[in-house]
Amino acid sequence: MITPVTAILLALTAMLANGEYFLGSSMLSRPLITCTIAGLIMGDVRTGIIMGASLELAFVGSFSIGASIPPEIISGSILGTAFAIGAGKSTAVALTLGIPIASLVLVIKNLCFIFILPYFVHKADRYAEKADGSGIGRMNVLGGFFLS
């Protein structure tokens, strides 16, 4: 059973993994790392590592090339692992849940890029016309939440 504290810790793990480029390319977003942390949070590190290795194989070629956007592996890995460990199921369940979750999150992210982010860009343009640097920075930070 996933408690609110567990859910918050899993969300913070996803937040850390999404912010990996603040620390350079640290590979924090890879399933091997995120599933291990999710397993630690869920109380079963061994299973988290095994699920991480399996999902790593499934997502091994998952990176952006040109305009091609791969499934969102962070959410798929963390949620697939958390649901599988929480239900006491095997690695196959983590794979079965992780890949569709990753694809669904990609669709949601694309919808945010299309419908929500332009608001922040246009608002930043209006701040730029007024030479308001703090407003531009605020729109950059607020809009950045939808990129992760």
Itemize the secondary structure elements and their pairings.
Blueprint: H1 4-18, H2 31-42, H3 45-58, H4 73-87, H5 91-115, H6 117-129, H7 133-144
Helix pairs in contact: 1-2, 1-4, 2-3, 2-4, 3-5, 4-5, 6-7
- Sheet having the most strands: none
Q: Helices and strands: which structural class?
A: mainly alpha
Q: Please state roughly what percent of the residues sit in beta strands, choosing from under 5%, 5-15%, 15-25%, 25-35%, 35-45% or over 45%.
A: under 5%
Order of SSEs: HHHHHHH
Distance between the termini: 27 Å
Which residue ranges are poorly predicted, with pLDDT under 50 across at least 5 consecutive positions?
Answer: none
Rg (C-alpha, Å): 17 Å
Work out the helix count: 7
Number of strands: 0
Helix content: over 70%
Average predicted confidence as pLDDT:
88
Tell me, briefly, the overall form.
Answer: elongated
Key descriptive features of the protein:
mainly alpha; single chain; elongated; 148 residues
Task: Explain the overall architecture.
This protein is mainly α. The protein has helices at 4-18, 31-42, 45-58, 73-87, 91-115, 117-129, 133-144.
In short:
With 148 residues, this protein is mainly α.
